Amino acid sequence: MTDTTSTDEAKACLNCDHPIQTAEKFCAKCGQKQTDGRVRFFSLLKDFIGDTFSFDSRLAKSILPLFFKPGELTKQYFLGKHKSYVSPVRLFLFSIIFFFGLVALKLGEDGGIHLGNDSSQKEQFNKKLYHNELVAKVDTARITFKEQISDPEVHAVLDTTFTKALIPKDVADSTDFTMANFWGNEIGIKVSSKDLYNLTAEEIMDKYGMEGFWKRIFFGKTLKIMQDGESFFKFAISRMSWMVFLMMPFIAFALKLLYIRRKKYYVEHFVFSMHIHSLAFISFGIVILISPYIHDAVSGMVFLVLYVYSFIAMRRFYGQGKTKTFFKQLFLLFSYLIIFIFGVLGLLAISLLIY
What is the tens place of the pLDDT at every residue in 172-194? Predict the structure, then answer.
């Protein structure tokens, strides 16, 4: 039998189907190493370690100018040094995962927010509610006895006994809900505190005869938040990273307007914004890590440092004087607050609808 394989015979690359000579080790089109499809364990391990350490080295190389040379990383990226540093989007995603991951852990350690759904708190509430009901019954009996017995001394004994047994009432008998629907009509309903803390939203709406699709939707959501505010808070926080990511195009647009004469492309403002936020999220993440060992005033200093950092970064990247940069930074800060407020309101609205 004749061997038909030769060094000059062309095969197809298994990745892109481009013709590749048998003697060639890599595909000229896609760069993949010539293979028969089988992968050795050590080859898989080698690729994993290579990719991981390649990312780590580029991450370290990106972090240094990001922290200590404001605006320099963005300048280097647009000078064409793409392979030397982590891509802006990847760095930004790394920073928000780092920060919000630590926020989630911190909330877990501290126990988050505890409202009516906590079992021990619910038990304490029911005890207070029962006591209030008991005091009300004793008070009714006292008044009845005073009406039947005219002796002032007996009245004094009853009043003294009632006063000693009375504990200041700190639980309301009922909660008044007042809401407005899309048509501007107010809808109000009183729900007893006992029902509020012990029944589900659906059970309360059925018991009190709540009708109407939108009325039940908004009333039910409000009750769920009151009964389990911790879950809603964590639900909204878990989606805040998306809110921040969606803010980036608007912040980049504000920068575009501020520096419209600088003839920079929109993507340059976008990358600059991502680099600034990457630094901010990594910095806040570090503060969370070391917060048990530092004073709160030191944590607050991070905002001042970031403000100074962004000023230097804007001067270095956009190349304008101190005065212009100062006023443009103030305008950018004002725009940022507006964008952030609308972002939070949008996040809460969406979280409320899908919660």
Answer: 555 555 554 444 455 566 766 66
Contacts of 23 (CB under 8 A, 6+ apart): 7, 8
Task: Look at residues 186, 189, 187, 208 and name the one whose alpha carbon lies nearest to residue 199.
Answer: 208
Residue 20: in which H helix or E strand, if any? Answer: strand 19-21
Residues found in the chain: 355
Using CB atoms within 10 Å of the CB of residue 268, give its burial: 0 to 12 exposed, 13 to 18 middle, 19+ buried. buried
Q: What is the pLDDT of residues 48-92, one digit of tens each?
A: 555 544 556 677 788 888 999 999 999 988 888 877 888 888 889
What is the Cα–Cα distance from 196 to 177, expressed in whole angstroms? 11
Closest CA to 165 of 137, 124, 194: 137
Could you tell me if 192 and 208 are in contact, meaning their C-beta atoms sit under 8 angstroms apart? no
CB 55 within 8 A of CB 86: yes
d(CA 223, CA 72): 50
Please state the separation of Cα 319 from the chain's center in Å: 34
SS3 71: coil
Neighbours of 310 (CB within 10 A): 20
Residues 6+ apart with CB under 8 A from 270: 248, 249, 252
Q: What are phi and psi of 319, to 5 degrees?
A: 65, 40
